[in-house]
Design goal:
The structure holds 2 protein chains of 2 kinds. Chain A is α+β, with helices and mostly antiparallel strands. Helices cover about 20% and strands about 30% of the residues of chain A. In chain A, the strands form 3 sheets. In chain A, strands 5-13-6-7-10-9-12 form a 7-stranded mixed sheet. Chain B is α+β, with helices and mostly antiparallel strands. In chain B, a hairpin with a 4-residue loop joins strand 6 and strand 7. Chain B is elongated, with a radius of gyration of 20 Å. Chain B starts with a strand and ends with a helix. Classes of the chains: A alpha+beta, B alpha+beta.
Chain lengths: ~220, ~325
């Protein structure tokens, strides 16, 4: 349930689902996101679901805070509605060429490379949200002993396909971008494809992702 | 149809195709984009007799130099822009908010914006551009939009797919107003900041940094001190949101912003001031002024009425 609704500026509504981050709360966010989207409410121009918040932005020329707030508060949420989730395997190469922050991870986590890879691969992660840059998935949760802070100085350029870790989350850089996450490896898969207008993101909120380790040789010869 | 085009003799600093932007895509990480200064975007199209939301060319600071090949076409430039038209025998100093007719071989030289950032060039007709998610707007970071998501470059041709035969001269008298006081609505993390910083935020002036672009406007000045947490759980962003990272220097999100961010939000710029905010040049001083939601809604309505009124005068 939404705990609090407030305005964010004069053209958006801020729906707060609480302070914690967990699948249950995120499921509520996604449920509201889907319900509002299906309603096609006049004036709404964007919805941004995140871990535990949903921001609804609207065209101030068409509607206003009070109208949209009323509509969200009176929205009928169909409880049996299931979120259709995909299960995806994402190949990741952790050769020294791509695991840019392995040394830092070993030091910060006080774990060997093998232990880190063993903790990271072959587990199911849940996609909480996508964004920041187009198609970037925010996946969780990493094991408790894998939690690490962002880099003190973010990289100006993180290579496309990089898989990063921060706190209890993993993400994938869908194209070259600045960023501060700890890079463990790289995937040869295209996670975002702007030529597919109807479905540009390989991974969507609610999906389940399993990372599979691949060799450098396999990475270089990867073709879907 | 293919014989009407501009040749780019000089591209300018940041010259892109823009239109009304793309919506319903924040949830997959794609920003709104679109013309930074909406009023000047609409006025440019109206001055050449187009539908208001047709793709136009946006430039920043130094603009492009184009040579025109083809049939007669009318053009208009909006913003506060210094430009020349080079015709066969004469060179004309151009006026913004006035349409001009170009003939085969004529050149438009957009020298620079004057104490402002963005200017717009519209043609009486249609540029041959690619649309992605209903918009041609170029987002150079995500490589989305026409021209493969890249800014326009020297030597390229800009094809014109359609020329409108009605090219009556149109003009209006309009002067862009500059603002120093930016009206801001307090945001969700306003109370993360010290009492002193909360006062400073609305009392002291900030300087617009050189590190400003279509994604964001960085500010320098008194550091805003966070007393709660310098990170929040990542959540949605909007244009106009003012985030304060750990270094205490506010950043205002602009049209190409990342869709999600994890810095506390101290305020949001009122929609009424957005068109004028984006035109503030690096080095300028700005001051934030608190405004209530209901006043922001009313002022935006008035601003929109003013825009409609200008449009109807053309």
């Amino acid at each position: 349930m939404i705990k609090n609704i407030s305005n964010l500026g004069d053209a958006a509504i801020y729906c707060d689902f609480g302070v914690e981050v967990n699948k249950k709360i995120n499921f509520e966010v996604i449920k509201y996101f889907k319900a509002i989207k299906e309603k096609n409410i006049e004036g709404i121009i964007n919805l941004t679901p995140s871990y535990n918040k949903l921001i609804v932005s609207y065209d101030l020329r068409v509607t206003n805070f009070k109208e949209i707030k009323d509509k969200i508060e009176n929205l009928e949420i169909n409880e049996i509605q299931k979120i259709t989730a995909k299960k995806l395997e994402i190949p990741v190469c952790c050769d020294a060429l791509y695991s840019l922050d392995m040394e830092r991870l070993e030091k910060k986590l006080n774990l060997s490379r093998d232990k880190i890879l063993n903790n990271f691969f072959n587990k199911e992660y849940f996609c909480y949200m996508t964004g920041f840059i187009a198609g970037m998935p925010f996946l969780g949760d990493l094991d408790e002993n894998m939690k690490v802070q962002r880099l003190e100085t973010p990289r100006v350029k993180v290579p496309k396909g990089s898989v990063g870790l921060t706190e209890q989350f993993a993400n994938i850089y869908t194209f070259e971008s600045p960023g501060g996450w700890n890079i463990i490896g790289n995937t040869p898969l295209d996670i975002f494809d702007s030529s597919k207008e109807n479905d540009p993101n390989l991974i969507n909120p609610g999906d389940l992702v399993i990372f599979k380790q691949i060799t450098l040789d396999k990475y270089k010869n990867y073709n879907g | 149809m293919d014989n009407n085009y501009f040749e780019i003799l000089r591209a300018g600093i940041n010259t892109t195709f823009q239109d009304k932007g793309r919506n319903h895509l924040f949830h997959i990480g794609i920003p709104f984009s679109g013309a930074m200064d909406n009023r000047n975007f609409y006025l440019a199209n109206k001055l050449v007799g187009n539908k208001l939301d047709l793709p136009i060319i946006e430039f920043a600071y130094q603009g492009p130099l184009f040579k025109f090949y083809g049939d007669k076409i009318s053009i208009a430039i909006t913003g506060d822009v210094i430009f020349k038209l080079k015709k066969k025998d004469i060179e004309i100093d151009g006026n913004c908010y006035e349409s001009y007719q170009l003939e085969h071989g004529d050149e438009i030289d957009i020298l620079s914006t004057n104490k402002s950032v963005y200017g717009y060039l519209a043609i009486s007709g249609k540029f041959d551009v690619k649309f992605q998610w209903g918009s041609c707007s170029i987002n150079t970071k995500a490589k989305i939009g026409s021209n493969e998501g890249k800014k326009l470059a020297k030597g390229q041709k800009i094809n014109i797919s359609e020329i409108n035969p009605n090219q009556n001269k149109k003009k209006i008298n309009y002067l862009n107003s500059r603002i120093e006081n930016i009206r801001v609505i307090k945001a969700t993390n306003f109370n993360y900041f010290s009492e002193e910083s909360k006062n400073d935020f609305f009392e002291k002036k900030f300087t617009v940094s050189k590190l400003s672009d279509r994604m964001g406007m960085r500010l320098e000045g008194l550091k805003i001190e966070n007393v709660v947490n310098t990170n929040i759980k990542s959540e949605g962003l909007l244009k106009g949101v003012i985030q304060v990272p750990a270094d205490g220097n506010p950043i205002i999100m602009l049209s190409d912003h990342g869709t999600i961010g994890g810095y506390p939000k101290i305020g949001v710029v009122a929609s009424v001031d957005y068109d004028r905010l984006v035109q503030i040049t690096p080095g300028s001083k700005i001051k934030f002024k608190e405004i209530k939601l209901s006043d922001a809604e009313t002022l935006f309505k008035l601003y929109e009425m003013e825009t409609q009124n200008l449009i109807s005068q053309i």
